[in-house]
Amino acid sequence: MTLMKHLAAATASLALTAGMAAADPALIFDLGGKFDKSFNESAYEGAQRWAKETGGSYKELEIQSEAQREQAIRRLAESGANPIVVMSFSNIETLNTVAPDFPETKFVLIDGVVEQPNVRSIVFAEHEGSYLVGMLAAMASKSGTAGFIGGMDIPLIRQFGCGYAQGVKAVNPDATVLTNMTGSTGAAWNDPVKGGELAKSQISQGADVIFAAAGGTGLGVLQAAADAGVLSIGVDSNQNYLHPGKVLTSMLKRVDNAVYESFKAGEALEPGMINMNLSLQGVGYALDDNNKDLITDEMKAKVDEAAAKIASGELKIHDYHSDNTCPAVTF
Q: In degrees rounded to 5, what are phi and psi of residue 210?
């Protein structure tokens, strides 16, 4: 079942009183900025797609610091925006505080779970999509060493790294997977200089394919890899175009679809949780003109076969969140 069908089934139709206009939806971007070419920008693309298709308008806010989280959500709720899509697990505590104060407003949290009667929580099976790009990394690697560079060191990012390492090891059990995290605060999402330094360190240790799951920091990883003549893997949005022919693929996390469908549901959006996994086409890998020469038909066939098995439940990928451990790598 696609996400669209899933949400449609879960969302009741909204009959508006004659003459009453629907409220504008709203989107709050997380640290790193709207145009981070990754997580936030994917959300922006989903909002823009809704606006272009419907002719509707929406409100948006970019926060610059942790201290602005509650203020931003309250400001939009008080303005009458409905629903309000809030980016990032970092807003879990904030939404638990604010949502009860606005019972008639529907909120959507991307990348976290809040159990409130007016909150829809949308999470992603990052480990499933990361497994697929890990397979591609192992098949493309000549050195047998693959790298992973995460942003903030939290379970969510370890989820990416764990899935990736499992995919690498599935293809090459003897492969080495190097891992680094950028930092322990929100600043870790927007430090491309540090990302580049970590990439250079991994390259010096033999890594010839590096997966960056670090928001804006990942742009430095992709640049350093391209400069050194090794391959990189983008994240969230399709980042293949940033360095054509040098980005092996991108692990797609369809935040755009989540935002688009939430805006489309409008005030009729139902609370609860959706896990956007491979079966809901919530994650995947990117293949386009920018990387088509890097992925052979044989590589694609193997990854697509694995994707089908994961989607059907035949192949289970270890979920780091289940026990905070990873069988394929140590963080």
A: -130, 125
**What pLDDT, in 10s, does the model give residues 288-319?**
999 999 999 999 999 999 999 999 999 999 99
Q: Cα Rg for the chain, rounded, in angstroms?
A: 20
Per-domain boundaries in the chain: 3-125+255-280, 127-252+285-316
**Tally of CB atoms within 10 A around 146:** 33
Structure tokens at 324: 């905070």
Which token pair is 32? 């790193």
Q: For 238-265, what is each residue's pLDDT tens digit?
A: 999 999 999 999 999 999 999 999 999 9
CATH 1.10.3210.10 is held by the domain 3-125+255-280? no
pTM of the model: 0.87
Burial class (CB in 10 A: 0-12, 13-18, 19+), 289: exposed
- Matching residue, tokens 């022919």: 245
Percent of the chain with pLDDT over 70: 94
Does residue 86 sit in helix, strand or coil?
Answer: strand
- Give the pLDDT mean for 262-279: 96
- The class (CATH top level) of 127-252+285-316 is alpha beta
Residue 31 main-chain phi, psi, to 5 deg: -55, 145
Pairing of β 145-152 and β 84-87: unpaired
Phi, psi angle pair for 39, to nearest 5°: -60, -55
Cα–Cα distances in angstroms (integers) from residue 191 to residues 46, 88, 117, 208, 294, in the given order: 25, 18, 37, 22, 28
Query: What is the model's pLDDT at position 21?
Result: 56
